[in-house]
Design brief:
Layout lengths: L1 E5 L4 H13 L4 E4 L10 H6 L7 E4 L2 E4 L1 H11 L10 H16 L1 H4 L1 H7 L10 H9 L5 H7 L6 H21 L13 H15 L10 H11 L2 H6 L6 H4 L8
Parallel strand pairs: 1-2
Antiparallel strand pairs: 1-3, 3-4
Length: 248
């Protein structure tokens, strides 16, 4: 039995949901409420000491880290393969996975928190702010830097440059390939999808206006049934924070 402990607007949760839906796997969809800080409760931390989502439970055994979960699912349920068949192909896919995790996945957090999630910290007292920050097991330093008012313009500019570089690198790779690693859709494609969708949701789609290969790839991603199932109503930040619709 598969159970996914996740939050619908979490980009890391979304890439696992994309994988589950693409592979046609049945799973129990257990929602973790960020506002209630359910991801920081002793019960959840006993499963995932990082205090982040998602967590996959397979027959009760936890599997952690979204990219690890994606690879785990592809290994355990190979009937709909999302990894290349050759060692060299898998190496190329994993290189993309590492790049996506280190560059765009980290970069999108800065505009996400500056435009959206910082609003929940602005009215906290100093004691409440310190307590909220201290609870963040894996990302305590991130929350300390963010503080009450968000990240600096320099940090935001750096993040946007990393996102711009990601789109450019993808566009170049897609000049000769249908998907990131070749003619077959892989985990690498799904790994980056939530970052791109969040960019669009935050009004950053202008970063790929001139990237024709990238635009073709994105249209193909949007056409997949797994995409529609992952991005149902209520799964984007603009579904919750209506003011974002003015920029998206």
């Amino acid at each position: 039995m598969l159970e996914l402990l996740n939050n619908p607007i979490s980009t890391c949760s979304q890439k696992v949901r994309l994988t589950l839906f693409e592979k046609g796997l049945e799973f129990t969809d257990t929602r973790i409420d960020f506002r209630a800080k359910e991801h920081l409760t002793p019960e959840y931390l006993a499963l995932n000491p990082d205090g982040v989502v998602p967590t996959l439970l397979h027959d009760g055994q936890p599997v952690l880290d979204s990219s690890v979960i994606m690879e785990y699912l592809d290994e355990v349920f190979p009937e709909v393969p999302l990894s290349p068949p050759t060692p060299l192909g898998r190496a190329k896919m994993r290189k993309w996975l590492r790049f996506i995790e280190e560059v765009p996945t980290a970069a999108i957090r800065i505009p996400s928190f500056n435009q959206v999630f910082i609003r929940h910290r602005r009215d906290l007292s100093e004691a409440e702010l310190a307590s909220d920050t201290e609870k963040r097991t894996l990302r305590r330093t991130f929350y300390q830097e963010m503080g009450r008012h968000g990240f600096s313009e320099a940090r935001l500019d750096e993040s946007l440059e990393r996102l711009r570089e990601t789109v450019a690198r993808m566009d170049a790779a897609l000049a000769d390939n249908r998907w990131l690693t070749g003619e077959a859709l892989t985990l690498a494609d799904f790994c980056v999808v939530p970052t791109i969708d969040r960019m669009r949701d935050l009004g950053l789609s202008g970063l790929w206006d001139e990237q024709q290969n990238f635009t073709r790839w994105w249209a193909a991603i949007e056409a997949r049934p797994a995409f529609a199932r992952t991005y149902a109503q209520g799964t984007r930040v603009s579904d919750i924070y209506q003011d974002l619709k003015e920029t998206a």
